[in-house]
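Title: Prediction job returns without error message
Component: structure pipeline
Severity: low
Priority: P3
Assignee: unassigned

Description:
Job completed but the reporter wants confirmation the result is attached to the right record. Sequence as submitted:
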Amino acid sequence: MLNLGQILGAGIYSVPGVILNSVGSIGLLFSFWLLAPLFALGGLMVYSEYASMFPKRSGAQVVYLEQAYPRPQFLVPVTFVVTSVLLSFSATNSIVFAQYALTTFDIPITSSRQTIIAVAVCAVGVAFVALSTKWSLRAVNLLTGLKVLSLVFLVFTGAFVLGGFTHIRDPFANFRSPFSGSTTNPNSLATALVKTNFAFSGWHNAFNVIGEVHTRDPGRTVRKAGFLSLLLATCLFFFVNVAYVAAVPKDEISNSGQLIAALFFQHVFGEGFVAKILPIMVALSCFGNITVGQARILREVARQGLLPYSSFFASTKPFGTPLAPVCLKYLLTAVVIVALPAQDAFNFLVDLSSYPNLVFNVATAIGLWLLRRRRMLAGLAPPKYRAKNIYVFLYLLSAVFLLIMPWVPPETGHGDVSFWYATYCVVGLGILALCGVYYWLWIVVLPWLGRYTIVEEVEQLEGGALTTRLTRKHYSSVDDGEQQPLIVST
């Protein structure tokens, strides 16, 4: 459920229309819903090999990159933290909630209405998490079940449409000449892959807590969980898209924005009661992903000493909840919702949130080969779960493709934002540059001015899991033999 709860978010209800508008054909639409999980499978195999090397280290990618790139010291965790904080907004789910809520009650979607509702629903989510972790987790579990039920209902409804049991006259119209209108524009293809990857984000969630998995073989457990969640999500997402295509004309899908599910319900059920209730289910499904996801991550990085005012952000006072991280996340969410044009906000934020992570994915794939070589030279046995090179290449290829191709101009009318198409690439690179500035100030300049150094301490948590914490050691309390350069050149 850990993986599945994150995967089954706003993506499947909001991106099919954008994808079809980008690729131009039903055949390519279906192809990308099969390609994305294939690339995710490559990532799953890469993560599995890393996990078998470090089975007691929670944190997944940041841990793997630390091991693969130990120099410059602390660069990986600091870069990861700054990126996680700046991209920890829940705006995409809030925006989709707002659009479906307005559509349910037949209220025209305007920029002001969408912004107000998105900010308000995020505030409600913050209140849930801030007041009670127990009840917020219960709500998430309930809404995860609702997500599964709503998707299963969509799949079965699509089967009824294809079987001729509804008033849809020709459910196979869109399936004829499926590749008619296909594009070969690299930017459009990259946009489609970014959106399908967004829908599948969360397949690696279990690796983040592998140190807390108490089984005989934690690596096998999280690997199996990843396989099952990816397989289930792939089947559900593919057949939900079949249902959309069977019921909604192609042109309407292309122009649907984030409202393809609402169009589906209207075409199948008309304007009746069911057509109103089901969009509410979609909105509630999005609500489940609004605030809970990264609050724990932000608290953990604060507890490890990677943020300013660490004690404040790591505190659970006064309600025993991660109040400060959740409020920070809400502030970032509200800022991006208000700052961006409403009609572009969803697409831009999905694109932006993916770009810095693609750099990490490239480094993760290459880092696996580096670690293999080091272990071989050290005479260590190969890990239990070794990824075939074809999977590593798949994972690397998808990341490189998505880093390069968005810089190619899209075809007229097929860009997913109204401003310059590569803005999110520039902002993403700017965030990574900001990580470098933060690292230089926090790890080099401030310690030099304050006459201290940063050291890493390994802690063993209850149950045997290992974690690290960065602490300050002032020169006056450090032995001469321990006063090593902060960044050691190789």
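Comment from assignee: result matches the submitted record. Strands lie at 452-460, 466-474.
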